[in-house]
Structure formats: structure tokens, C-alpha cells
């Protein structure tokens, strides 16, 4: 299991909808029109109203053009969304140039497109838009027409105050952009990880569903094969000894009998009466989880002990996959040894996975289980560049918790070293019907 199962998947929630940008621009058009009307018509302050309203109308015409040319539900590429937000910055800068520059109280609206980018686009395009907004603010601090003011009066800000506004605008822009980007990025990572979890579990459930398909196929094919076998048996009596056609009929009869035997085996594998296949004890579960990782250069030791009879649960794809992920993680980071043990009593079953590797990093110990968190120190240069993002742990934790398990992750106490992962179930949950393969990922 790699830590980046979605690396080759284009996820739609990482793209902004065209309709979102169009609606936000209509909101800006309405606000800008109202502000210009209040200042120029309501207060009677002089300003270049023709050019100002032309800039507002340009945004309105752009929206109309986009609505006609493209469907509202289309999702834009990051570059296309960035270009539209860059236009919004330049259009707002043009209005501010005509109405007093940074002395205009609405100058802080320059941050709005950058905030939208921080919540919907990558860091690269957000930085580009932030640089563009900063450059526009710098130019507006120096070059701008006078602030609209009553006729005969001239309003101008002191240079120091203008510099203070510029510093406040740029600082607020940087802080808000970083904050919005981090919050949105965490939501995007969680969505990506949940999508990867759904893909993983869907694949596992598909493999299990093949068993049911085999049963259906055996049932449907049983009748025609029985007919072929019966016809071949009757035909075999129609030919005299030495007739070459009798050999062909005998071959058909033998092969049809072989097919009937194969179908009987498929039916028995899926039979509810075959308890060996439908259910497995903890010892077999551990072997199934450990076996794929033998021969990797790390010694894997397993042990089982407890009070009473050994717990027996269903063949659960989520449990097998989750535990397999945890064992794989332990093998990747172990120096020479991994211990997998199961302990049970009348009420609880616990499975522990310990390794002698570097253990979990102290600074992320409280974040373990979140997606895309670097879990441990690297064991090798390849590991340092190729993974450790914590998505495997997240998927394993999600799958196991949905079967009713509780998971604790910690480092082993000194003088021991390495990580210790404990997965525990109430015994009645593990052995009962609550843990089954048909697990829904929907809340």
C-alpha cells in the first residue's frame, strides 16, 4: 500500500466551479455600483464616473459572456481560475486608481481574490496572485487620482499614514492568505484521503464479491453441463466398438464431468455450511496478515495467548487490509524485528504490533491518524523521498475503527525502542455480526 494512492487521480473537488467565480463577481459588481452611486449621486462628490462605471460594466459583460459560452457546472483548471481572479484584482485596482488609491476605505477588497485562491487553488497560483495584489497596492500608494471629496476641498493622506496603510494591507493579505490556505488544504487532504479509503475498500469488497459471482455462475452452469453430460453418456451407447466417434463422445463426457467437479468446488467455497471459509480464528488472521511480509529481511514473530476459547471472527476485508497496512508500516521502519501478538479474555481481543525501528516522531505523535502527516523518521534515503505521509496509517485507522476497533499508537518505553500499535475490539463485536465485509463508508 503506497502512501499516495491518488497521485494519478484528478480529483474534482480541487477545481473551482465557474459558477462560483461568476456569482462572486456579480456580488462585486453590485457592491461597486452601489458605492459609486452613493458617492457620486447621493453625496455629490466629483469623480470620473464614466470610466469607473465602464470598469464595472466590463465585469458584468465578462460574466454574461462566460454564462453564455460555458455551462455553469464546469470546473475550471487552476490556470483558468487564476487568470479570472487576476482580472478581478486588476479591475479593482483600476477602480481604486480612479477613487483615491489606498486612501479609499475599500482598498482592502484587493485581498478578496487572493482569499478565494487560497481556499480553492494551489499554493503556487495563490502566491502569484498575492504578488500581483502587492504590486498593485504598491503602485496605488504612489499613483492615483484624488479621493472623491466635496467640491472645493482637497483630501490627501500624510505619507507616513499611506505607508502604514500599505504595510497593513500587505501584512493582512499574507496572514489571511496563509491561514485560509492551511484550513482549506487540511479539508482537501482529508477529502483526498477519504476518497482513497473508499477506493481501497471498494477494491477489497469487489474481490470478496467474486465469491458470490462464482456461486451464481456455478448454479447457472450446472443445468446445461448436466444436460451435456447426460447426452454424451447416452451417445456413448450408440457407437460400436472401435468407432472413432466414440472416443470423441467419451472425451466430451469426461470433460463435462470435470467441469461439474469444478463447479461443485466453487459452490462449496461459498456455502454457508463451510465454516472454515466463512470464519477464521485469530491465529489464522495473524498468519494471513503476516505471510505477505515474510522474506523481506525483517524477522516477524507472532504469538497468541488468552483466557478461554480462541476468538473466531468473519473473514473481514477491512480488518485484514487495516492490520496488513499496520504490519507493512512496521516492517518498513523496523531494523531487524517485528512482533505481532494477540491477547484475549472473555470481553476483549487485542492485537499488538511492535517494531524496533526509530518509533514515532515526538512532534507528530498527537497528529497520528490524520492524513498526509509525516509519521516517523526515515529508515533510508529512498524512504525519505518516497513516502511517510501517513495516508496508509489513516486508511488503516479508518477501516479498523469502522469495524468497532479502538486504536492506540505510541512509542515503546525505554530502554526499548520502536513503535507500538494496539488494536482492540470488544470480543462480542469481533465475533458477532457487527464486523462484516459490507462496511459503508458513509457517515
From TrEMBL:
InterPro entries: 2C_sensor_his_kinase (IPR050980), HATPase_C_sf (IPR036890), HATPase_dom (IPR003594), His_kinase_dom (IPR005467), HisK_dim/P_dom (IPR003661), HisK_dim/P_sf (IPR036097), RegB (IPR047770), Sig_transdc_His_kin-like_C (IPR004358). SUPFAM superfamilies: ATPase domain of HSP90 chaperone/DNA topoisomerase II/histidine kinase (SSF55874), Homodimeric domain of signal transducing histidine kinase (SSF47384). Residues 216-429 form the Histidine kinase domain. It comes from the Bacteria. CDD domains: HisKA (cd00082). The keyword Membrane applies. The chain crosses the membrane at residues 24-43, 49-68, 128-147, 159-181. It catalyses: ATP + protein L-histidine = ADP + protein N-phospho-L-histidine. PANTHER family: SENSOR PROTEIN CREC, SENSOR PROTEIN RSTB. NCBIfam families: ActS_PrrB_HisK (NF033792). This is histidine kinase. It comes from Roseibium salinum.
Amino acid at each position: 500500500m503506497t502512501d499516495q494512492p491518488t497521485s494519478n487521480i484528478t480529483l474534482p473537488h480541487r477545481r473551482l466551479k465557474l459558477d462560483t467565480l461568476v456569482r462572486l463577481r456579480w456580488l462585486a459588481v453590485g457592491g461597486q455600483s452601489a458605492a459609486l452611486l452613493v458617492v457620486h449621486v447621493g453625496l455629490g462628490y466629483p469623480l470620473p464616473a464614466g470610466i469607473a462605471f465602464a470598469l464595472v460594466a466590463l465585469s458584468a459583460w465578462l460574466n454574461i459572456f462566460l454564462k453564455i459560452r460555458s455551462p455553469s457546472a464546469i470546473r475550471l483548471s487552476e490556470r483558468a481560475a487564476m487568470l479570472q481572479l487576476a482580472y478581478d484584482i486588476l479591475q479593482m485596482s483600476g477602480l481604486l486608481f480612479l477613487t483615491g488609491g489606498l486612501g479609499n476605505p475599500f482598498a482592502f477588497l484587493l485581498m478578496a481574490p487572493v482569499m478565494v485562491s487560497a481556499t480553492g487553488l494551489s499554493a503556487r497560483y495563490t502566491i502569484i496572485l498575492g504578488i500581483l495584489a502587492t504590486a498593485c497596492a504598491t503602485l496605488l500608494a504612489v499613483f492615483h487620482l484624488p479621493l472623491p471629496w466635496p467640491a472645493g476641498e482637497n483630501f490627501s493622506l500624510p505619507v507616513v499614514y499611506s505607508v502604514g496603510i500599505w504595510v497593513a494591507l500587505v501584512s493582512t493579505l499574507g496572514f489571511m492568505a496563509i491561514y485560509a490556505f492551511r484550513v482549506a488544504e487540511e479539508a482537501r487532504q482529508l477529502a483526498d484521503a477519504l476518497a482513497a479509503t473508499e477506493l481501497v475498500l471498494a477494491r477489497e469488497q469487489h474481490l470478496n464479491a467474486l465469491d458470490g459471482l462464482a456461486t451464481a455462475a456455478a448454479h447457472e452452469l450446472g443445468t446445461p453441463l448436466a444436460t451435456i453430460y447426460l447426452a454424451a453418456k447416452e451417445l456413448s451407447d450408440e457407437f460400436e466398438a472401435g468407432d472413432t466417434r466414440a472416443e470423441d463422445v467419451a472425451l466430451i463426457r469426461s470433460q463435462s464431468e470435470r467441469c461439474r467437479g469444478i463447479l461443485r468446488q466453487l459452490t462449496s467455497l461459498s456455502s454457508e455450511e463451510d465454516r472454515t471459509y466463512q470464519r477464521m480464528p485469530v491465529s489464522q488472521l495473524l498468519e494471513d496478515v503476516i505471510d505477505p511480509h515474510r522474506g523481506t529481511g525483517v524477522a516477524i514473530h507472532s504469538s497468541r495467548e488468552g483466557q478461554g476459547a480462541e476468538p473466531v471472527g468473519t473473514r473481514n476485508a477491512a480488518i485484514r487490509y487495516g492490520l496488513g497496512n499496520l504490519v507493512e508500516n512496521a516492517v518498513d521502519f523496523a531494523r531487524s524485528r517485528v512482533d505481532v501478538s494477540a491477547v484475549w479474555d472473555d470481553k476483549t481481543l487485542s492485537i499488538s504490533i511492535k517494531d524496533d525501528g526509530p518509533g514515532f516522531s515526538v512532534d507528530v505523535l498527537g497528529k497520528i491518524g490524520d492524513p498526509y502527516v509525516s509519521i516517523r523518521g526515515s529508515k533510508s534515503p529512498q524512504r525519505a523521498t518516497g513516502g511517510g505521509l501517513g495516508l496508509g496509517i489513516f486508511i488503516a485507522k479508518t477501516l479498523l475503527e469502522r469495524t468497532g476497533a479502538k486504536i492506540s499508537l505510541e512509542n515503546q518505553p525505554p530502554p526499548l525502542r520502536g513503535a507500538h500499535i494496539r488494536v482492540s475490539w470488544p470480543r462480542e463485536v469481533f465475533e458477532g455480526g457487527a464486523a462484516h465485509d459490507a462496511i459503508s463508508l458513509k457517515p
